[in-house]
Amino acid sequence: MAVDTTYYLILSAAVFCTGLFGILTRRNALLFLMSVELMLNAANINLVAFSQYYGNLTGQVFALFTMALAAAEVAVGIGIILVLYRNFEDIDVAEAATMRW
Q1: How many other β-carbons are positioned within 10 Å of the β-carbon of residue 26?
Q2: β-pair partners for 4
Q3: 44-53 long-range contacts, Cβ below 8 Å, gap at least 24?
Q4: Cα separation of 46 and 68, whole Å?
Q5: What is the pLDDT along the chain (101 residues), one digit of tens a residue?
Q6: What domains can you pick out in the chain, each with its CATH number?
Q7: How is it placed in the membrane, per its record (predicted)?
Q8: Which phi and psi (to 5°) does residue 28 adopt?
């Protein structure tokens, strides 16, 4: 018994809204990173759901590329967070504004 595509889209919208809420309300850089990951996972759910709905593998291939992009984004993000912590002893993104000229 297959699950209808609508349920996947509702789940994806809920996960995306959770990530968007995390980005808009938090100032911690780690929570920013986790929220972006939630938003990318919501996009992956959409890609796989539509791939299953249309019966081709294109969406699943794009989801794999998105996972690779997310892994690279985490590697760069952790590096930035470490630099923030070393310079400011805090990972509050409001402090990063003082790094500008």
Answers
A1: 15
A2: none
A3: 45/8, 45/11, 45/12, 45/15, 46/8, 46/9, 46/12, 48/8, 49/5, 49/8, 49/9, 49/12, 50/5, 52/5, 53/5
A4: 17
A5: 688 999 999 999 999 999 999 999 988 888 989 999 999 999 999 999 999 999 999 999 999 999 999 999 999 989 988 888 888 788 887 776 666 55
A6: 5-99 (1.10.287.3510)
A7: Multi-pass membrane protein
A8: -80, 130
For tokens 């780690």, what's the residue?
Answer: 30
Provide the residue count of the chain.
Answer: 101
* Position 62, amino acid: F
Token pair in block for residue 39: 């938003």
What token pair was written down for 47? 């890609």
